[in-house]
Amino acid sequence: MSTHVLLVEDEQNLARGLAFNFESEGYTVEVHERGESALARLLGETAGPDVDLIVLDVMLPGISGLDLLERVRERGIDTPVLMLTARDAERDVIHGLDLGADDYLTKPFSLPVLLARARTLLRRSGGPAGSGRTFRIGDTVVHPDRFEIERGGAIASLTARELDLLALLWERRGRAVSRGQILQEVWDLHPETRTRVVDTFISRLRKLIEPDPGRPQYLHSVRAFGYRLEAD
Ligand code: CA
Fold first, then answer.
1. pLDDT tens string 89-105
2. pTM, whole model, 2 decimals?
3. Cα of 31 to ligand 1 centre, how many Å?
4. Ligand 1 center–CA 34 separation, angstroms
5. What is the structure's pLDDT at 176?
6. Which of 75, 85, 147 is nearest to 116 (CA)?
7. C-alpha–C-alpha distance, residues 176 and 229, integer Å
8. Interval between CA 93 and ligand 1 midpoint (Å)
9. CA-CA distance, 17 to 69, in Å (whole number)?
10. Are strands 219-222 and 226-229 parallel, antiparallel or unpaired?
11. Which domains can be identified in the chain, with CATH numbers?
C-alpha cells in the first residue's frame, strides 16, 4: 500500500505541482479544492483509501483550514497535518498548532523542504514504508528527516537550506541544475539575483561529502551554468 496524501488546496497550479511531486516520490494524492469535501472524506462520509497525511492550506474559499482541522481533531482523528500558511500569518500558525497541526510551512516554500517535512511527519506517526527515507551520495548517508549526514561513522548536522540544496541536486542527480533554478527553488530568489550564495553553500557541502573537496567526485561544477550531482 502506498502512502496516501489528502491535499486541501484551492490554488489549482500549486495543487497540481504538489500532487506531481508527491506522486513522483511514490505517494498517492487526492486533491480537494474545498474544506467541505475534505471534511466529508475525513469523517468517513465519502469513501476512499485511508489517509496517512493531510496537507492543509489555511486560506480556503469555504470553511477555513483551521475550522477543518478543529473539526477533524474533535472527532479524534489524529492523522498528521502539515499546514500551509500565508506569509505574515503568525496568528494562523499559532492557532493551527494549538488546534493540533503537527507542522507548518509558510508560502512560498520549496518542494524539497515540503517533501522532507512530510516524510518526518509520516515517520513520527509510524507511517508506511517510504517515509523517513535516506539517500546516499558516495559513502555519505543523508537523513533528511533528522537534518543530518553520516560519513565514516561521524554525524554532521545540516541547516534547512543546506539540506534543501542537497535534496534538490539529488532529486535531479545526473543532470545539470542552473544557479538560477537553485536560487529560485532553494532561496525563493529571482533566478537572476546577483549573489554568490549558491557557490558558498556548494563549497560547504563539498567539505561535508567529498573525500577531496578540491577535486569533487560528486558535486560537479558545470561551467557558466550551475552544478550537477553524481551519486551512483
Ligand atoms: Ca488558499
1. 888 988 898 898 888 99
2. 0.57
3. 13
4. 9
5. 95
6. 147
7. 8
8. 14
9. 23
10. antiparallel
11. 4-121 (3.40.50.2300), 135-229 (1.10.10.10)
- Distance between Cα 14 and ligand 1 center (Å): 9
Interval 175-215: pLDDT, tens: 999 999 998 888 777 888 888 889 989 999 999 999 999 99
Spell out which residues have Cβ within 5 A of ligand 1, the ion: 10, 57, 59
Question: Phi and psi for 31 in degrees, rounded to 5?
Answer: -100, 130
- The CA 117 to ligand 1 mean position distance, Å, reads 20
Q: For residue 1, how far is its CA from the centre of ligand 1 (angstroms)? A: 30
Q: Which residues of 178-187 are buried (b: 16+ CB within 10 A; e: fewer)?
A: ebbbbbbbbb
Ligand 1 centroid, distance to 125 Cα (angstroms): 26
Whether the Cβ atoms of residue 9 and residue 15 lie closer than 8 Å to each other? yes
Q: Which cell numbers hold the place of 118?
A: 512530510
Q: How far is the CA of 26 from the centre of ligand 1 (A)?
A: 25
Centroid of ligand 1 to alpha carbon of 218 (angstroms): 39
122-142 burial code (b ≥16 CB/10 A, e <16): bbeeebeeebbbeeebeebeb
Of residues 144 and 228, more confidently modeled: 228
The Å distance, Cα 66 to ligand 1 centre, comes to 12
